[in-house]
Write a structure and sequence with these properties.
globular; 2 strands
């Protein structure tokens, strides 16, 4: 069945492939603070549709495919059926704001990738099923809630280490947006999460 998750993946793959083939397109879409300050605010969105390389793209889209389909229905009643799309795009934007505030005067800062949106989807899923198994590297089973803790810890570590255009802190901010936005839209999710968290069923 064709859904909004699949649509987002198709668009992201196409845009990433086009950007890899054309450096001018890549440079126009990547998040670059001086360009944003000059009025190119669309980069808050466009950077989320390009990726550093094939593995970066594959990891994000693989994660989005499995968890996006699982939670997409939760948002369908909002914004004329496009609630999930808006949720995802807003997550990309919101996740970038702290980095922009921190690096707004930096001419060397660059960022790209769907991490903010994908993290929002992943953490929203964890609200619904904290003990559901997530398969790390598609092989190693780990409870979703434990994966979330490790995910945040790694994001903080990778951000401090630096050395790439991948915005690791967007993982954490995107995840925070996913949790807060989902609770605001569906307040009953919070007691559901707390009850599920206390009942692992092991």
């Amino acid at each position: 069945m064709f859904n909004h998750t699949t649509l987002i993946i198709i668009i992201t793959v196409i845009v990433s492939l086009l950007a890899w083939q054309n450096k001018a397109v890549f440079n126009r879409l990547i998040f670059y603070p001086p360009a944003v300050k000059n009025g190119q605010w669309d980069r808050f969105v466009t950077h989320g549709f390009i990726h550093a390389d094939g593995m970066h793209l594959l990891f994000n889209m693989f994660t989005l495919y499995f968890f996006g389909r699982a939670i997409e229905g939760l948002y369908q009643s909002f914004l004329f059926g496009y609630g999930f799309v808006v949720f995802y795009v807003l997550a990309i934007v919101v996740a970038m704001i702290p980095s922009y505030v921190k690096h707004k005067d930096s001419a060397s800062y660059l960022s790209l990738g769907a991490s903010g949106g994908v993290s929002a989807v992943l953490f929203a899923f964890i609200l619904l099923a904290p003990w559901e198994k997530i398969y790390l590297f598609a092989v190693i089973p780990i409870p979703a809630i434990l994966f979330a803790v490790a995910y945040v810890a790694y994001s903080i570590y990778a951000d401090k280490r630096g050395g790439s255009n991948i915005n690791h802190m967007a993982h954490m901010w995107g995840g925070a947006f996913g949790i807060i936005a989902t609770i605001i839209l569906e307040p009953q999710v919070l007691p559901h999460f707390l009850n599920a968290l206390l009942s692992p069923g092991f």
